[in-house]
Amino acid sequence: MTRIRDRMAERGRDVADWLEERTRLVSFMEKQLYEPTPRRGMWLYTLGSATLFLITIQFLTGILLLFYYVPTTKDAWNSIYYIMHHVYFGQLIRGMHFWGANLLLIVIGLHMIRTFLSGSYKPPREMNWVVGVALIILVSLLAFTGYALRWDQEGFYAWEVGMKIASYTPLIGAWAVSLLLGGDTVGPATLSRLFVFHVWLMPAILAPLIGVHLILLRLHGEFGAAFEYSERLAKLNKRKQYERMEEYFASDEEEEESSRGE
Amino acid sequence: MPEELQKDPLTRGQFLYMGAVGTMMGLALTVPPAFFIMDPALKATIFNRSDIPHVWREIGSIFEVPSGEATAFRVTFPQKQTYDSGGPNSRVGSLTETALASWHDGKIPDLVKKRSEGATFSKSEVRTLEKNINVMSNACTHMGCPVRWDSVHHQIVCPCHGGIYTINGMHVGGPPPHGLWRYVFRIREDGIIEVRHKWVQGTPWIV
Amino acid sequence: MAEIKRGQAKPAEEEEEEIITEDNVFEHYDEPQGFFPNQVMADLTVSFALLVITIILAYAVPADLVEPMDISTTDYVPRPEWFFFFLDQWLIYFPGAALVAFGDIAMPIIFAIVLFAIPWLDREPAYSPARRPYMVVLGFLVITAIVLNLFLSMVRILNFPGGSPAG
């Protein structure tokens, strides 16, 4: 029994060594898994990973929905109806994509508020804040365009209002709205463009930006709220206080010495 | 290590080569895609091409327009967008929208009151009728929501942001920038209203 | 590999007290821990909870699919998703073409630029929200404006039941 266990352990080590030599996977994992993080307020920092998790769910369910969704004005609505009523777990997959998007917007908002309140955007983490703002804008645009892909009244009119707002842009209004419409009226080209934005263009920008967000996070480390450092700050303040007192007494002594000298 | 390798100088020729090849590659990969994407926008804004061909479509008879109320008529136009390639599978799509028609201030003109359906009008009578009827788009000029007749307050209202128009489509309240879009229309001698996919004030977009 | 010694461990040697200065105070936390396993457990728990919520909601409240798109509708009342309610309310405050361009295009763009620029607008070196009142009050005002507009638009929408403006 013990011999088998030893052998298994040896085999495991061999595999790990083999991988490490070729990919540095083991040391990479070691570095990633043993990154220092705050012990206090740990639950506050789950918002970021929850956002990542929900976005992963969106990518996964989005790819699954594409197996049935047809981006044409004639069939878009029918294909979604088909997903909801005839495909195994269709309601689950579409429901997860829909509710995942709703939850994502809540969680990403909370994540942003947390970052704002803890001041985690201060030097040297400014660029991570900028990437984060770009991500939140992209996610809301994705929610907006995805809503319209249903090509039902609700989603269509939301997108329609959005396009109409674009038409008010000074100078380039007409150009901007006809670019979104794919012509001067709502038609098949409008839905094709929506499909491009939601399914290819914006995820293609979103995915690498998430990578940059994570790399920058790991580069400078998680900055927790100030209370994560309260003991160290207290020690610092205490030391500074002592120094000031020492200075004060030292100057007192000097004064005394100088007055005695007179 | 990288410092040691930073020894080969960049010659003037290499620099120019990089610049020239880089520019050419950049242009080849950006200019055609830009035009590819902007095709409909350029055609619509610069060449004034519309997806809807120059056709007149009947919306209904003037006898169907009641007094003191704006009525909705559905009208379907052929639409050429994406699928009208001219190949063997080419097909022309369609776009259905709604026109609101009302008599000026809601009053039916006497020459209509006297007659019933099937009557014919002379050219001068038709001109009088055209002056006395409003044929408007039901897309709110603010955000394009479908406006409707409010029979309690005798006005046209928008459900989205509370735009209010008179029975003649003039803007009286709420955020819309101006009155309802007016179709280019004509009345046939047998009293049928025909419209084109064109508006007196310009292009509303969306509809 | 080093041999693992079994038995009672030696008492830990007393480490020399680190001198905390303003430069290194934020270098690590009071009680640092590895990302694995505690933080991973917390992240996993939250992700699991969210997954369960989405699955329950997917069946309890099926995703909407209303009537197919029809631009010629005469009785449909368009309403945005809840997360755009505040923007929808915002549209009402800016009547006329010029103000629409200002309120609904220029202002959101300015807001986005301000949001991007927050790290450069907030030069206060302190991290605690209590010690940078301007930013926190400003952030609070923005959130209040969004929530207030959300409620205003909800009140407006609830008072405008589907399709009958006369009501």
Keywords:
heterotrimer; A: 262 residues; mainly alpha; Cytochrome Bc1 Complex, Chain C; 2 domains; 10 helices; C: 167 residues; 4 helices; 51% helix; disordered C terminus
Structural write-up:
The complex is a heterotrimer of chains A (262), B (207) and C (167). With 262 residues, chain A is mostly helical. Chain A has ten helices and one strand; from the N terminus they run ααβαααααααα. Chain A folds into two domains: 42-118 and 121-221, Cytochrome Bc1 Complex, Chain C; 229-256. In chain A, helix 6 packs across helix 7 and helix 7 runs antiparallel to helix 8. Chain A is flat and about 100 Å long. Chain B is an alpha+beta fold. Chain B is built from four helices and ten strands, in the order H-H-E-E-E-H-H-E-E-E-E-E-E-E. In chain B, strands 5-6-7-8 form a four-stranded antiparallel β-sheet, with no helix packed on it. A three-stranded antiparallel β-sheet of chain B has the order 1-10-9. The model of chain B has no long low-confidence stretch (mean pLDDT 92). Chain C has 167 residues and is mostly helical. Chain C has a domain at 82-158. Chain C is 51% helix and 2% strand. In chain C, helix 2 (85-92) packs across helix 4 (133-158). In chain C, 19% of the residues are buried. Residues 163-167 of chain C have low confidence and may be disordered. Strand 1 of chain A pairs antiparallel with strand 1 (32-34) of chain C.
